[in-house]
Amino acid sequence: MKFFSQSFLYDDPWSIVSLAFFLRYPNPYASHVISCDVISRIQTPSGSLLTTRLILKRGNMPKWFPQGIVSRAESWVVEESEVDPHGKVVHCRTRNLDHVKVMQVEESVSFCQTPEGKTLQHTEARIVSGFGWGLTKRIENHGLTRFKANVQRSREGVSLILSLLRQSRLQPM
Amino acid sequence: MSASVSPECTPLKHEYDSCFNAWFEGYLEPAVAASASSKEREAYSTKKAEEFQQKCGKIWESYRLCVQKAVKEKGLDKLLQQAREEHPLTEPPPNPTQPGQSS
């Protein structure tokens, strides 16, 4: 098992960062996202919004990976989120639904408002392979390297949407 | 806006997304004082949920049914069910209010 954790501070307030996070697909940094659907969305009595999204992502297998085991380099991902607008917190958990024996990646992201009115993002990931054949460690290391690179790309995507949102809010109605 | 899993649902998804996003922008900045009691916050949330239902309820229902059908046809409902059994996810609380009574 590999574990990854990272924090990042946005200068923008929580509401706009959270909006950008939910609007992040499509963006040029996420061309691997083929489809994204809301499959369930409810508001709890206390006012939080619970959403489940089903996302199809395109991936590619490393060259050293044995051929013929993973028939298609696409992966279904389920994303479950909870938005609490009163407490100003977003929690979001994502994991892949297929190829789980090869590699399961479980990611948790949260966005909280800081006392200074900025937004703190915290990301955690667990990467587990049950593949065996002497490749488990190599797969997990590969998964971790890819995850680190993707965290960076994903943040660039959110930042791009953020700047678009800022621009549109500056324009007179 | 990104595509839906099924091309026939994509126009419905886009219409739903536009409606939801406009509502969501306001939802993220609740017009309730931070000092408000939980009762006041709940009343505000109920109002917000009703607003969603009124503006986007119909399109959400059409989009939801379309995706539900596509998910079943692709056998993804079984995959989702399996994943839930392996790692039980927190189920939404009973008797949720609107928007969208989901399955």
TrEMBL record, chain B:
It comes from the Eukaryota. Coiled coil: none annotated. Residues 78-89 have a biased composition (Basic and acidic residues). InterPro entries: MDM35_apoptosis. GO terms for cellular component: cytosol; mitochondrial intermembrane space; nucleus. The keyword Disulfide bond applies. Residues 78-103 are annotated as: Disordered. GO terms for molecular function: phosphatidic acid transfer activity. The keyword Disulfide bond applies. Keywords: Disulfide bond. Belongs to the TRIAP1/MDM35 family. This is Mitochondrial distribution/morphology family 35/apoptosis.
